[in-house]
Design brief:
Elements (H helix, E strand, L loop, with lengths): L27 E7 L2 E8 L8 E6 L10 H7 L3 E7 L15 H15 L4 E6 L1 H12 L4 E7 L10 H14 L2 H14 L1 H13 L2 H5 L6 E6 L7 H10 L3 E6 L6 H4 L1 H12 L2
Length: 273
């Protein structure tokens, strides 16, 4: 089923609840190392209940949990949330080798298992859509639903120059606060690691891998996003066996920041499907 909607359903109770400390308004960080790679997991507990949905937020290249802050707070009203700073990003230790998308997905799965997660709604933004898709392909037992926000990379624009120009245009459309988060996160990850992982992002065939995802998928973009064009996002949604497409009016690439309420409503709708 494909098409846009702005309905806001209640989330279906999930299949697991994480047993971790911290129920305040700020995420409780935890350092998790597995297979020689380290992530920082920023946990926010949902409402007290025996079972609740679990949401996992995977950032894009150069970014961290910080640009998910608004969305995480909204989702935490309905379930436990984990925003993961992946290896090399968000102040985590830089790996000693280039990591593939499959490497990131396998690491994320191992982190979730250490955290006690059983069935999760995985949310990815930008390059994080690649991590989320690969995680769903690798571990259908772990992932129940997939939300892809501002996916990359459009095959018709698979060059570093084209993507760089689109990123520059997007910066002109983002809010000053969003740009501040972006540029400080880029500085924290460092140019060397960013450039190490750019070829990985550019080479991942999201179209082909998404066709293998058996879970329900929602592809979401902001209507002013110059990086994830509408026609390609619609094609991606149609490629997924159980996919749908949604556009948030007036929002650029960081749709989870500027359009957090609409994105949260759609993720809750997805989780209830």
């Amino acid at each position: 089923m494909h098409g846009a909607t702005h309905q806001t359903p209640d989330a279906e109770p999930g299949r697991s609840r994480l047993r971790l400390p911290g129920t305040g308004p700020r995420p409780t960080p935890r350092i998790v190392t597995t297979g020689g790679l380290t992530s920082h997991v920023h946990f926010l507990a949902g409402p007290a209940a025996s079972t609740r949905q679990v949401f996992v937020l995977l950032h894009g290249i150069g970014m961290s949990h910080r640009y998910y802050r608004r969305l995480q707070l909204l989702l935490a009203r309905h379930g436990d949330t984990l925003a993961i700073d992946l290896p090399g990003f968000g102040g985590t230790p830089t790996p000693d080798r280039q990591l593939s998308v499959a490497d990131y997905a396998a690491h994320a799965a191992a982190v979730l298992e250490k955290m006690g997660a059983r069935r999760v709604v995985v949310v990815g933004q930008s390059m994080g859509t690649q991590f989320a898709t690969e995680l769903a392909v690798q571990r259908p037992d772990l992932v129940s639903h997939v939300a892809l926000l501002g996916p990359v990379v459009d095959p018709s624009r698979r060059t570093v120059l084209q993507q760089s120009l689109s990123l520059g245009v997007d910066c002109l459309k983002e809010s000053p606060l969003a740009n501040a988060v972006v540029f400080t996160d880029y500085a924290r990850s460092g140019m060397r690691w960013y450039l190490t992982e750019v070829p990985v992002m550019m080479g991942y065939d999201l179209d082909a891998r998404l066709a293998l995802v058996s879970q329900p998928v929602t592809v979401i973009r902001g209507s002013r996003d110059p990086i994830a064009p509408r026609d390609w996002c619609e094609k991606l949604a149609a490629t997924a066996p159980h996919g749908r497409f949604l556009e948030i009016p007036g929002k650029p690439h960081l749709v989870q920041h500027g359009g957090a309420a609409g994105v949260a409503a759609e993720i809750l709708r997805l989780a209830a499907s």
